[in-house]
Model the fold of this input.
Amino acid sequence: MVNQLRTDILKALKESAGHVSGEALSRHLGTSRVAIWKHIRRLRQDGYAIESSSLGYRLNSSPNLLLPYEFPGMEQKIHHSSEVSSTMDIARELARNGAAAGTVVIAESQSRGRGRLERKWYSPQGGIYLSIILRPQVTPAYAPRINLMVAVAIARTIRELFGLKAELKWPNDVLIEGKKVCGILAEMDAEMDMVNYVSVGIGLNANAVVSGHEENAVSLREKVGREISRKEFCNSALRAIEEIQIMLTGADLLDEWRDLSSTLNREVRITAPGEVIEGQAVDIDDHGALMVKTGDGVLRHIFAGDCIHLR
Ligand code: BT5
Done:
């Protein structure tokens, strides 16, 4: 849990154009100058370049890390690490121990980032790797919609920040010009009639160069043509996810997904548990299952699987 006083000191330094004296900080925050100094030292260890002179303290630069202080208003919900095996493991542990909805686990890199079915997620530094704990008050039948919801929020964020035409590929990919820029993984703990928690993992290729490492992958940096601000992206995406949750059970979410989808109206091949289905992707149903019309005219509702766009 991030220290509130450090958060407040950093906020005061960021808001001030010039120096802030130790005395002013201690008065403003109601603590001793020694305490201020100790927290400044700790912030420096985290990578904040804070100058001190007879004029007081001044923030010269912040590290390029997704530290809790970089998420105004959400600091207490952010758990940040430099490298972890997988943010999903930490999120699961936190969720089991009662972490509040909205808790976010962020890592700068992952040694064992994973996709569905234990597939590997390439997670070098420069990307964004996070898991969010949600506690929606719905039955497990709504689980596939959680994937769709987060995918919509990410695609919207990419479109708004960079004007790139991000599209959605069923069930859980965000693509730019047909290449995967983001993967989403949801893990759920539920009873028959109630979800305890869902932890949603988001792996986003931000600044790491991924083409060449993963087939059909692309990063925002490669598309935008410059390094992007991971802090800005994360703040916007987390806000978008917060706002979109109200849509989880309604029809609007499905409409938004349809608008952003690159899967609908395509010939697809779906590898589902135990079978391969080919046909035309015609729609998604209320539960988020993909509706595919096969060659013999049968309409199938597919809840999980891997999808290839054929034409
Ligand atoms: C996904 O799985 O796309 C979900 C990925 C979720 C990753 C996040 S990162 C934060 C959190 N912590 C974790 O450990 N995981 C989550 P799936 O649909 O199964 O796709 C996996 C496939 O995507 C792999 O088999 C590769 O082909 C491809 N892939 C791996 N790394 C990639 C990358 N960085 N960019 C694009 N494609 C990648």
